[in-house]
Description:
Layout lengths: L9 H9 L2 H22 L4 H20 L1 H14 L3 E5 L2 H14 L4 E4 L3 H6 L1 H7 L3 E4 L2 H8 L16 H12 L7 H18 L2 E4 L3 E3 L4 E6 L3 H7 L3 E7 L3 E2 L2 H15 L7 E5 L13 E7 L3 H4 L15 H5 L1 H6 L10 H12 L16 H5 L6 H14 L5 H14 L2 H18 L8 H4 L12 H12 L1
Helix pairs in contact: 2-12, 3-12, 16-18
The structure holds iron/sulfur cluster.
Amino acid sequence: xxxxxxxxxxxxxxxxALRNPxxxxxxxxxxxxxxxxxxxxxxxxxxxxxxxxxxQAAEAKRRALRxxxxxLETAERNLSANGWQVEWAEDAAEANxxxxxxxxxxxxxxxxxxxxxxxxxxxxxxxxxxxxxxxxETDLGEYIIQLNDETPSHIVAPVMHKTKAEIRDIFIRELxxxxxxxxxxxxxxxxxxxxxxxxxxxxxxxxxxFLIAETGSVGLVMNEGNGRMCTSxxxxxxxxxxxxxxxxxxxxxxxxxxxxxxxxxxxxLTVYTNILNGPRRADEDDGPQHSYVILVDNxxxxxxxxxxxxxxxxxxxxxxxxxxxxxxxxxxxxxxWVYGGPIGAVxxxxxxxxxxxxxxxxxxxxxxxxxxxxxxxxxxPRMLLDLRWELVRDGxxxxxxxxxxxxxxxxxxxxxxxxxxxxxARAGQHIMGEYLPGILGNWTKHRDFPDFAPKPFRRLxxxxxxxxx
Length: 469
Ligand code: SF4
């Protein structure tokens, strides 16, 4: 089952988000907190140390990407040696079918899931529910949005767009919680509800932050114990892992598990940093009896080998979302598919087709903050510009925009025309005030239009030279 794509409605969806004061408040607070904490942790020793960690992490991911085919073969061999049953899925339909086959084989009725953006991409929950399986999201944020029938709005904080009061109302409405505004009481209530599901789940599903080729292990980092419960309590565990999640060595994993939490939540390490090595051994008392890894392509190999391949090194930390002035204003749902923010503006067109996500490459001021905070130094602004170029090349740019750019080029290539344009703009602003007319009004709907200088720089320069003479 495919996930609905609404990315061509970005402008309309952003407009709705901008008019929602609760969302504005929640997203501003969430992104600001993440952004500040990242800087404090990443550069806690020194700026040089932080930058060195970033470059080391970037090199680990780029090396893995360069050797991707070989490393995938190594990983499959070592995973199998550890007792994992390895499956390959070319697309979402195949991945979902494999999960359903496994569920049927093991007579599964209830599934406990830990947070995974890949499963959002696959629309896995819908596929399982359509087959009459009960699926419970056990990450607190995912649990809340599942109760409210929504999708995540942030890579690491899926419920960032909700205020505490909204979450309280969801718990009261959906679960019959006694009214309270105490966050700790709400968390305790959710924990109690979820504990029952952990104990009764036949199958656990997780993603995988990393796949360690040399040891045949799945690396999972998280802050809630739910991931460990999903991967160890039910008798069957499936890890769905994108093929780009591979790293070569445990040392690479150690590097990446430092920069990932520093960049996302401002922690030195997540509370749980796991290396999963397959099913329980004969001499072990706990752990799943059956462990599966499904290695998912779903469009990744088509990006591999293109100028956008570097986007595959993303470790889904969400730092670029926290830093982006567009994301900070709109939240993630405006981007109309699974991934929001700068990485979403790049990945979405690559995964769903540029024609289905035309506004996204323009959903950026190109300020460069996303590249600056990215722990693996992905050049997102360059990719956004390349995608804009592709839009023009393929005839997807708007007629009005093309005409405006041509007019701009005519004005900028002649000093006389430039001066005339400036004088007209100053006179126009005098008449219209703070709001631009017609389609240009979209720009001033949510912003002030800065005043033009009363005298242009050229005239000031001339006057100054005249005075000196
Ligand atoms: S692009 Fe970089 S900053 Fe953004 S989510 Fe991926 S790793 Fe994090």
